[in-house]
TrEMBL record:
This is ABC transporter substrate-binding protein. It holds the Pfam family SBP_bac_1. Residues 1-28 form the signal peptide. The keyword Glycoprotein does not apply. It comes from the Bacteria. The keyword Membrane applies. Keywords: Cell membrane, Lipoprotein, Membrane, Palmitate, Signal.
Length: 434
């Protein structure tokens, strides 16, 4: 029996998927409701419901909302196999290449999207495919930053870290100087979501690889070349390996952690440093206390303070019978009104992190200087993953290699990354961009 991924590719190649996949069950039954999915916690699902209710009140178009928290990929594949995808999916910008290559979305004529000129041009980058065409509408953007237990830092007498060396020194102090004052050696330096699942190890490591001057790929003349085995990439990965092997500041169990399982280690006082996204602010303010932690730009590596940028797009699924309504919802979601509702103040349910609409002032809406940090990092140092036709295979294979390097301190980093570069070369050829 073929895997869901293989079945999906076959459907896309035969052209059947694009013709039928996005006909949600409601529209198939004659219901004119737009079916909308996003990946949501209970809190963010409530905010999404408010946004969609406002859309219905404004346009009269009904929606059927399906929040998904766990097993997102599996549920999408099940919908594909049943040829019953929703009309709209709001999901990671990193999924664009997969959605395009599998025939789940078609090109979007940016000029025909009302309000498109009101969006930040950088936000549109995450909706653009390798071929220069747009395949989605940007909805929200963000970058990662470093969260630090401020009370712990002050307890151990350390300054705010500015460099990688400072960061490691602080992480060691958190492990050695009893920052929680309970008299036990039960605190760790860094929360690290380094699982291979969904490529998390690569997602987390990317900021540090770039800060070390490394790259996954380099581009020239419309073609890409593996760069993960080049000297600066190798040195950056060796530094990361040392966090596990020499400095030993990564929290135990890091190699199997995904972000949703990593968050509790920070908020319950198990580790004091966490490179993560601003979507955690509301949660940690509630569970830990806003005064207990601080948000800073990631301390500089040898090549600077580059930080991984990402966001979410509005995907208008191919084959929908409600294409006019799809377009109207996408246009509404990028309006100042919808963006402000989605920002949800400082709550942990915010579905809009940094707004894509230029007229929305994030500081006026949230009145929180931490968001000024996120905005500044995104605008000055934010970096998206390489714009190959489909980034996910690169993210997954690099996560697997990095996870092995972190797990085995005797691993030859250069040899492992050289092997990975070979895998990248093969994948680039398969995607016809090598």
């Amino acid at each position: 029996m073929p895997s869901p991924r293989r079945s999906l590719a076959t459907l896309a190649l035969t052209g059947l998927l694009a013709a039928t996949s996005a006909c949600g069950s409601s529209s198939a039954a004659g219901d004119e409701s737009l079916e909308v999915w996003n990946r949501a916690s209970p809190a963010s699902a409530e905010v999404t419901k408010k946004v969609l209710a406002a859309f219905t009140a404004k346009t009269g178009i009904k929606t059927k909302y399906v929040p998904v928290l766990d097993n997102w990929d599996g549920k999408v594949q099940e919908a594909v196999a049943a040829r019953n995808l929703p009309d709209i999916i709001i999901n990671d910008s990193g999924m664009l290449g997969t959605n395009v290559s599998q025939g789940l979305v078609g090109p979007v004529n940016r000029d025909q999207i009302a309000g498109q000129g009101e969006l930040h041009e950088r936000a549109w980058e995450q909706a653009k495919g390798y071929d220069g065409k747009y395949y989605a509408v940007p909805y929200t953007v963000q970058t990662v930053a470093t969260l630090i237990r401020k009370d712990w830092r002050e307890k151990v007498g350390a300054e705010v870290p500015k460099t990688w060396a400072d960061l490691v020194a602080l992480a060691k102090a958190f492990q050695e100087k009893d920052p929680d004052g309970n008299g036990k050696a039960d605190t760790y330096g860094m929360v690290v979501p380094a699982s291979t699942e969904r490529g998390y190890a690569s997602w987390w490591a990317s900021t540090y690889i770039w800060q070390g001057g490394g790259e996954f790929l380099t581009a020239s003349g419309g073609k890409f070349t593996p760069a993960i085995d080049q000297p600066k990439s190798v040195e950056a990965v060796k530094w990361l390996q040392n966090l596990f092997c020499k400095d030993k500041v990564a929290i135990p169990g890091a190699l199997t952690l995904v972000t949703k399982d990593a968050h509790p280690f920070f908020e319950t006082g198990k580790a004091g440093i966490y490179l993560t996204g601003p979507y955690t602010f509301g949660r940690f303010d509630k569970s830990l206390g806003k005064d207990k932690y601080e948000v800073i730009p990631s301390p500089a590596g040898p090549a600077g303070t580059t930080s991984m940028a990402e966001g979410e797009n509005i995907y208008l699924m191919a084959g929908s019978k409600l294409q006019d309504q799809q377009k109207k919802l996408a246009e509404y979601l990028i309006t100042p009104e919808a963006q402000k509702i989605g920002m949800a103040g400082n709550s942990d349910g915010a579905i809009v992190k940094l707004p894509v609409n230029k007229s929305v002032d994030v500081l006026a809406e949230r009145q929180d200087d931490r968001w000024a940090t996120i905005k500044d990092v995104y605008e000055k140092d934010g970096k998206y993953f390489p714009n190959v036709p489909n980034w996910l295979p690169f993210r997954q294979r690099s996560a697997e290699t990095l996870n092995k390097i972190f797990a085995d301190c005797g691993t030859d980093v250069q040899a492992s990354l050289t092997e990975l570069a070979g895998v990248f070369k093969t994948e680039l050829a398969a995607q016809k961009v090598g």
